[in-house]
Amino acid sequence: MTAPQNVLAWVALGLGLGSMMFGLLASVAAIICGHIARRQIRERGDQGGAAALIGLIFGYVMTGLIVAGLALYFGFIALMLGAAATSGEISNL
């Protein structure tokens, strides 16, 4: 008899792939579910280790990309505000 599939591993995979569409919330949930699933797989001997690992990888990569994108976005805004302030464009702020 084969070991049962760990459902949380497949949830992590779905959330990791869905994080490309749904963003930061899904990627963080994929990371949490992936870690829990990997622990359950080690303890119970379930199947689904690859799904949990891929969900973790997608979750971490998408989280990194989203955070880097936000940092670039806000850095660009700060740079433009600083340039506008030094050129006298923003006098009423």
Can you describe what's shown?
The protein has 93 residues and is mostly helical. It has one domain (7-86). It has 3 helices and no strands. α2 packs antiparallel against α3 (49-86). The longest helix is centred in the last third of the chain and has 38 residues, at 49-86.
Q: Supply the helix-strand structural class.
A: mainly alpha
Radius of gyration: 20 Å
The separation of the N and C termini measures: 71 Å
Unreliable stretches, pLDDT < 50, 5 or more residues? none
Summarize the helix and strand pattern as letters: HHH
Shape annotation: rod-shaped
Number of helices: 3
Task: Provide the residue-averaged pLDDT.
Answer: 92
Domain count: the total is 1
Summarize this entry quickly:
By secondary structure, the protein is mostly helical. The protein has helices at residues 7-22, 24-44, 49-86.
Q: Can you tag this structure with a few keywords?
A:
mainly alpha; about 90 residues
Topology readout:
Layout: H1 7-22, H2 24-44, H3 49-86
Helix pairs in contact: 1-2, 1-3, 2-3
